[in-house]
């Protein structure tokens, strides 16, 4: 792949990824002859799985823009989808999803560790506060109120 190629997924990888991650169940035929209903359902399933579903058309366009997609997603891609454009856009979104999952899995141990450290810190701060209160009470008991 040259540095100017946009990463895409082959058709079989698209259907396999959708099935393996339980995003959607589609056939190669669905990508070869997409319909308005099938691509709308497909994009909705992908966005719902990624956790970003709002307004389908605008959400898909925003996601593709964020990914620096060289093609512009239009309403026509939902109303009268073309096989090559459908495969391209679905592949681009799935490529992003796979990359994101890989990166999230890579940093998951670190985030879990940092969460644990944060919880321990909160616990220790609470213990320090409790000990400071006990010191204050002991101080009052030993020296009385007059010496303060």
Keywords:
single chain; 148 residues; mainly alpha; 6 helices; 72% helix; chromosome
Q: Give me the number of helical elements.
A: 6
Radius of gyration: 27 Å
Helix content: over 70%
The unreliable regions are none
**Strand portion:** under 5%
Describe it for me?
With 148 residues, the chain is an all-alpha fold. The protein has a domain of 98 residues. It contains six helices and no strands. Helix 3 packs parallel to helix 6. The termini are far apart. The model has no long low-confidence stretch (mean pLDDT 84). One of its GO terms (cellular component) is Ndc80 complex. Belongs to the NUF2 family. One of its GO terms (biological process) is cell division. Pfam families: Nuf2. Keywords: Cell cycle, Cell division, Centromere, Chromosome, Coiled coil, Mitosis.
Task: Please outline what is shown here.
By secondary structure, the chain is mostly helical.
Question: How does the SSE layout of this entry go?
Answer:
Layout: H1 11-20, H2 28-32, H3 36-50, H4 56-66, H5 76-79, H6 83-143
Helix pairs in contact: 1-6, 3-6
InterPro entries: Kinetochore_Nuf2_N (IPR005549), Nuf2_N_sf (IPR038275)
Subcellular location: Chromosome, Centromere
GO biological process, one term: cell division
